[in-house]
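Summary for the lay section of the report: proteins are chains of building blocks that fold into shapes. Here we show the chain for PqqA peptide cyclase and then a coded description of the shape we predicted for it.
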Amino acid sequence: MTKDGPARPLRLDGQGKPLWLVCELTYKCPLKCPWCNNPLEFGSIRDELSTEEWKRVLRESRALGSLQLGFTGGEPLVRKDLEELVAEADRLGFYTNLITSTVGMDAERLGRLKAAGLKQIQVSLQSHDADTTNTLVGAPVHQHKIDMIREIKAQGFPVVLNIPVVRQNIAHTTAYLELALELGVDYVEFANVQYYNWALVNRDELMPTLEELRESEAAINAFRARIGKRMTIYFVIPDYFNGRPKACMNGWGSIIMTIAPDGLALPCQEARLLEGLDFPSVRDHSVEWIWKDSPAFKTYRGDDWMKEPCRSCDEKEKDFGGCRCQAYLLTGDAANPDPACSKSPFHHKIGQAIVEAHRPLRNSRPLVMRQAGAS
Ligand code: FES
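The coded shape description reads as follows.
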């Protein structure tokens, strides 16, 4: 019991701890992926946290109960102090993983990361086909990625292979899985692109049709049946086509905390785009204050903020009202029900987006590649 009555039942909320810490070490990246979730204005966000500032964030987060730490970016390998930060995280007892394109990696650096205590590596690979990969990321890196995946396996890391699923590669599903199996990866994640930032700019050009998604799902199921437990494959039909929103972040400010390169603390990697919320910086506040007391983390925590129909919905403990960033981008108010939900009064916006993306002249516009100043 609390003084206000019975305590709320525990959800997937880590009992109030930021179990999962996401460290965006830099927005710098040698690639130009047109679905990048970094801010459109990433080029003007400078003044990255120093090594010592990052180490303080790691210490304070671990003291607060964080367990899993993802180093991401941009491309985290751009940071020369990555090994030092991995070593500090390992010393503190984090389970660390690196989310990377592998550009900036070689066998020697991989060995140093291993020695520093890195536990797992997630590599993005856009296709089994070199031309497709190189075109989609705007650089000739396909063969390097393949070489590095082999090296990562050779050095004994578990590997998650991540394919951002878009119209341009969705027909490659089976060939991609064949390659993944041959490379010996442990997990394959078919990550249906979420439409924020660069992906939203390119939504009409990137979005597959429901038919293409169903075909891909069927190919994955057939592959799973053929290979058994040799490789784990993740795929879910994206929220645009599902009729129900995703349980974004397992609930706002529930278990995940992201620290951006300039020190802003965010409940999700996209939240910087939300206007009207004053996100605190680790340069000005302790991690504990940010997590427990800052208005930015409390605003959409729990369900008091919800409007109808979310507030009285019997699924709100399952999806937490969906995604605040998507609600903001598509309706102008982050507290609105996520339009991805068929019960949302804004659901028609999803239908309109699908129609718009699949009009007969699809593929008629070139992709806007991620680059500084392009927004
Ligand atoms: Fe920000 Fe869903 S991406 S809440």
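Put simply, here is one thing we learned. The chain has 14 helices and nine strands.
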